[in-house]
């Protein structure tokens, strides 16, 4: 797996978790204090998030950080 594939998988996982919480991209971005465009790029796999960014997202989705990066769930 290369970097781009990993970014895409993590982005899909964020989207999956967000949608399971019936939350819009705008809502999650607002809770995380991110621009909606940044959340869109994250979910599309077009950016390489830092571990702190993933931590903020996990906190606002009320899931453990491992749920964002455990791609075998």
TrEMBL record:
Recorded superkingdom: Bacteria
A GO CC annotation given for this chain: cytosol
Domain HTH cro/C1-type: 14-68
Keywords: DNA-binding, Transcription, Transcription regulation
Record-level Gene Ontology MF annotations: DNA binding; DNA-binding transcription factor activity
Protein name as it appears in the record: HTH cro/C1-type domain-containing protein
UniProt organism field: Sphingobacterium paucimobilis HER1398
